[in-house]
Amino acid sequence: xxxxxxxxxxxxxxxxxxxxxxxxxxxxxxxxxxxxxxxxxxxxxxxxxxxxxxxxxxxxxxxxxxxxxxxxxxxxxxxxxxxxxxxxxxxxxxxxxxxxxxxxxxxxxxxxxxxxxxxxxxxxxxxxxxxxxxxxxxxxxxxxxxxxxxxxxxxxxxxxxxxxxxxxxxxxxxxxxxxxxxxxxxxxxxxxxxxxxxxxxxxxxxxxxxxxxxxxxxxxxxxxxxxxxxxxxxxxxxxxxxxxxxxxxxxxxxxxxxxxxxxxxxxxxxxxxxxxxxxx
Length: 280
Hints:
Largest sheet: none
Low-confidence stretches: none
Structural class: mainly alpha
Number of strands: 0
Mean pLDDT: 87
Number of helices: 14
Shape: globular
C-alpha cells in the first residue's frame, strides 16, 4: 500500500483510478458502503461532465473502468451508477453549476453505450424503468431554463434514452419532439439533426413504425428548416407527433403573452434579444 501522504490527490489522472480501486474494496450495496460509493461517484460523475479536458478524460476513463468490472459483466455496477445519477440530480436539483456537469456526464454515458449491460441482458423491464426515471428527472431539471448549456445536455439524455425499451423510448421521443418547438433556433436545429442520426442508428428499434412512416420521420427531421420561426413549424411538428402515434401538443397562448410579443415586434431589438434568439 502507498501512504496517502505520498499520493498527489490534486492530479486527476492519479486520484480517480485510486478512488475506483477504493470502491472495489468495499461492499457498496448496503450500509456505510452506500455512502462511500455515493461520495466517490459524486466526484467522478460531476467531473466526467467537466469542460476541462484532462479532468473529463481522467474521470470518464475511471468511470468506464468501474462500470466494466464485477462478476456479472458490469450489470450490477451499471444499476448502481444509474441509481447514483438519479440521486445526485435530485440532491442537487436547481444547482445548475453541478447539474450541468451531471447532464453532460449522463449524456456521454448514454451516447457511448455505457448502459448496454442493462439493455443486452434481457432486463427490458428494468431498463425501461430506469430510462423513464432518467427522462423524468432531466425534465424536472431543465424545465423553464433558458440556459443552452443546460438544455442541450438535457436533450442529449433524451436522445440517448431513445435506445431504451418500452415506455422509456416513447417518453424520450416525445420530449425530443417537444424540443423541436423550443424558442431557441439552436436548440431546434441541434435536436433535429441529432434525432435524425439517432433514428438511423435505431432503425430496428423503431421498426414498428413501418417503412413508410419511418422514412417520413427522417424526411421531416432532415429537410424542414428548423431555424425558421416556431409558428411556421407547427404543422411539421404536429405531423411528427401523429406519425409516432402521439397526441398533438396543445398550444395555449395567453392574452398577456400575445401583448408582450406584440410589444417586442414594435420595439427595437436589444442585444439580449439577439443572443436569446440565437440560442446562446
